[in-house]
Amino acid sequence: MKQQSKVQTLIHQMGEKKSLRRFKAIFETMEGIIFGTSIVTTGAPHIKDHIEIKRYMSFAIIGLLPATAVAVYYYGLYALAIIMTSYVAGGIVEVSFAILRDKEIEEGFLVTGLIFALVLPPTLPLWAVAIGSVFGTFFGKEIFGGTGRNIFNPALVGRLFITIAFPQLMSVSWKEPFADVITSATPLGVFQISGEMTPYWDLLMGMHAGSMGEVFSIGIIAGGIFLMLSKVSNWRIPVSYLGTVFVFSLIGNMISPNIAPPVFSILTGGLLFGAMFMATDPVTGPTTRIGKYIYGFGCGLLTFLIRSFAGYTEGVMFSIIFMNGLNPLIDHFVLKTIYRNNNI
Hints:
Layout: H1 2-16, H2 24-35, H3 53-75, H4 77-101, H5 108-118, H6 126-140, H7 154-165, E1 174-175, E2 182-183, H8 187-194, H9 200-205, H10 217-229, H11 236-255, H12 262-267, H13 271-278, H14 289-309, H15 316-338
Antiparallel strand pairs: 1-2
Helix pairs in contact: 1-2, 2-3, 3-4, 3-5, 3-10, 4-5, 4-6, 5-6, 5-7, 6-7, 7-15, 10-13, 11-13, 11-14, 14-15
């Protein structure tokens, strides 16, 4: 702790030096990312930890790096173009609202812009990427007041919009890594049509068609565990989400071979990515511990039902969006149950 304090003090002092004053913002950002906020309250309620928005966003991006790097490696520079288009289009909306509100530009879009790009097909036209990013940022976040005030995950709002508005683009824009041939068949789609399962090793390594950031399962798991260990995300949500899908898929597969087995269900589609990086969003998720279990269970149950009995191949996006809308109600009834003698 003493060593940490010395380093933190040194970084702070460097930012205060007259010769380095112009770089003060950089030193403050470094201090916030490494050590968290040093601001404390003079009275209750008191800050319990050092997680602030800069540190949260920085750690979230670190957790996304494995999936991002593999996406660029598998799909080439066009994957990078999709990411940059998402950032530029959504960033324009962010900056515009910051100017209108006369507030600082918030760091929230650094994560939102990346997540949105990673849940898209690797051959989606850039104009569609831009439209989805603008729509998700505007209607998913800014109209609610910006970062920290949105009800729904803005990346999912953008993807949901282009899925409904341009269904053909979102269903025939898949391709396997290093391949030039476009296919409309993802592993989950192939299973629902023919019952054929992609080998688990290919699912782990991402050697199959799918959204460009959702295919590399090993990287997604590693990034998700990093976020849980660093307490940027709460383990209760992904564990209850994935656990629910596992249990229902196990029971369902015993009853009917048309329902995908549990491990295959977890490794296909956007389930892992959604559970690790989107359902865990602290803004659109519940705040109570019990609420997090209920939320994860609801996401898992809806995902299983949509995948198994609906006409739509994937259910992660709709499940998380639906549960986002129920979060205030979940927390309300959890608190009302805990504090029964109070009027909440």
